[in-house]
Amino acid sequence: MSLADENPHWSFETLAVRAGQERSQFNEHSEALYLTSSFVFDNAAQAAARFSGAEPGNVYARFTNPTVSTMQERLAALEGAEACVATATGMAAILSTVMALMQAGQHIVASRSIFGATQQLFGNILPRFGVDTSFVDGGTVEAFRAALRPNTKLVFVETPSNPLTEVFDIAALAEVAHAGGALLVVDNCFCTPALQRPLGLGADLVIHSATKYLDGQGRVLGGAVCGARVLTEEVFKFLRTAGPTLSPFNAWVILKGLETLSIRMKAQSANALELAQWLEAQPQVARVYYPGLASHPQHALALRQQASGGAILSFDVKGGRDAAWRVVDNCRLLSITANLGDTKTTITHPASTTHGRITAEARAASGIGEGLLRIAVGLESQADLRADLTRGLG
Ligand SMILES: *Cc1c(COP(=O)(O)O)cnc(C)c1O
After folding, report:
1. For 263-393, which CATH superfamily applies?
2. Which residue owns the Cα nearest ligand 1 atom 5?
3. Domain positions in the chain
């Protein structure tokens, strides 16, 4: 019985610092880190009962570890999920979900605007195992409905999308998926449960790259799948056999990250909104993409399903690649990296990095121009962020 089970009325902020914790015999205040790969049994009968599952408890850390279990319970509480399974990385969460729930001959409908490695997994690796994916361009619910087939098992989206911050209507897509006998899976990496809870809007599973905002300080890799226990139990069965398990150390780091998730997401979103408004007023900037701006085409939808615009924005610099690279190369504070979800602000030129491997035509078709820059806004001051960007915008 964890503290959160005893206190079901706790709010999000309280759950973020308290949920899942069970104190040991030492009555530690902070969550214990159990760096142990296996667990010992009192006698042969207990070993047998643990292995058969007749008695609950830890056996081997590829299956379960108390620190990992605490992190899973805390994240499940925050997502409003019945259960959560932690994985070694975000990609391990996506792969484990597919391996657990799908079989050869089945089909995925995915938004084209998803993380590059997810595109590679769905487009180039899964077809070798008889699982095909239809990628949907544009965010209309009709386009998703049209892509469904009788054998579609998963509908997969990220919202807001990377890097153009397109917003997908989770409730409407859940209806479409369910009408077609499929499950809706939402990669909630950009918003985190602090800003958006897809399960409450009808999604069946939420995927996380805990590497991003859940840790929030760029220290460890991790992932998670949250949802109804009947589904996460299948993911767990795959994981305990195949092994893409989260390390207890990483789970502990992420657990401490979750404690500040709410306050970080609020502060970083507010910082992003201010920066987006400032960028929109700069003459060298052609367009700003940020769901929290009134100029965003899906601003109303974003406000309906998100608590705020989030901490990621993109903008088109006039003058194409040369002008965009000038902004990047003049940054002394912003980190030039493709990573996101850190307290340190990062800047990326998608056309030559994260989206550099797709053809120029495909990039143009998806609106990722040569002048586009993405910023994942951290906790530095507005004044310092603006000064850094002003140098290159010149
Ligand atoms: C980073 C990321 C992933 C993959 O996560 P890893 O932890 O790097 O494996 C998946 N989805 C989104 C949206 C991401 O940003």
Report:
1. Aspartate Aminotransferase, domain 1 (3.90.1150.10)
2. 90
3. 3-258, 263-393
Residue recorded with tokens 């408004």: 277
- Residue owning the nearest CA to atom 12 of ligand 1: 115
Residue 338: what residue type?
Answer: A
The CATH code for residues 3-258 is: 3.40.640.10
Please say if the pLDDT value at position 136 is more than 60: yes
CA of 114 to the centre of ligand 1 (A): 10
CB 239 within 8 A of CB 87: yes
Question: Cβ(58)–Cβ(22) under 8 Å?
Answer: no
DSSP 120-140: HIIIIIGGGGT-EEEEEPS--
Q: Token pair of 193, please?
A: 């449960």
* Same topology between domain 3-258 and domain 263-393: no
> Residues 391, 280: contact at Cβ < 8 Å?
no
| This prediction's pTM | 0.95
Distance CA 56, CA 52 (A): 9
166, 211, 250, 355: residue to mutate for ligand 1 pocket, most atoms within 8 A of CB = 211
The phi and psi torsions of 199 (rounded to 5 degrees) equal: -65, -35
What is the DSSP code (8-state) at residue 60?
A: B
List pLDDT tens digits, range 303-354.
Answer: 999 999 999 999 999 999 999 999 999 999 999 998 899 999 999 999 999 8
Pocket test for ligand 1, best of 87, 89, 115 (most atoms within 8 A of CB): 115
Task: Please confirm whether the linkage preceding 198 is cis (ω < 30° from 0).
Answer: no
- Which residues, judged by CB distance below 6 Å to any ligand atom, belong to the binding site of ligand 1? 89-91, 115, 117-118, 158, 162, 187, 189, 209, 211-212, 221, 223
